[in-house]
Design brief:
single chain, 7 helices, disordered C terminus, globular, five-stranded parallel beta sheet, 58% helix, 5 strands, alpha/beta
Length: 159
């Protein structure tokens, strides 16, 4: 499986910035791979709405702004996908197929389908129910990309 580009879910930025947790280290490492240009990453505007929503609800805006700004700087504007009318209508169609799914997840799925993004990096296992995309655990992505990098560097130093 070649992982050339991925959609990054909200929880990656949240766990990376959060307290110690089993997901923190792989999420930090994943974001470092993105920052180093080893993984092409996209997200959508809804991810930023989710970050703001969470920290407004917890009345912790400064923390939310820091996570928001860091993730924004990392992903860069051209890789933050807008929510379009086409995405909204696709989400509506997907809601018929996945009636138990959360609306925001259907919106992410619609954006991914409409932008030909096959992979989503997320800790949320419920994304596995969607047949249109493949959920990737951040830990497995980091392991795969790091093992590929180390084998490439070993090969380049071989006589």
């Amino acid at each position: 499986m070649k992982i050339d580009k991925v959609f990054v879910d909200t929880n990656i930025a949240m766990y990376a910035a959060g307290k110690d947790h089993e997901h923190k280290k792989p999420c930090v490492e994943l974001l470092e791979l993105i920052a180093d240009g080893k993984l092409l990453a996209f997200t959508d505007a809804e991810v930023f709405q989710e970050i703001l929503h969470r920290f407004i609800a917890f009345k912790s805006l400064e923390t939310g702004f820091q996570i928001f700004d860091n993730f924004y700087d990392l992903i860069r504007t051209e890789k933050i996908l807008a929510i379009t009318a086409e995405d909204i209508m696709k989400a509506r169609k997907l809601a018929k197929k996945y009636s138990q799914a959360k609306a925001r997840d259907l919106l992410h799925l619609a954006v991914m389908v409409n932008h030909d993004l096959r992979f989503i990096v997320t800790v949320d296992a419920h994304f596995e129910e969607f047949k249109e995309v493949e959920r990737l655990d951040p830990k497995k992505v980091v392991e795969k990309l790091c093992s590929t990098s180390s084998s490439l560097s070993k090969n380049s130093t071989s006589p």
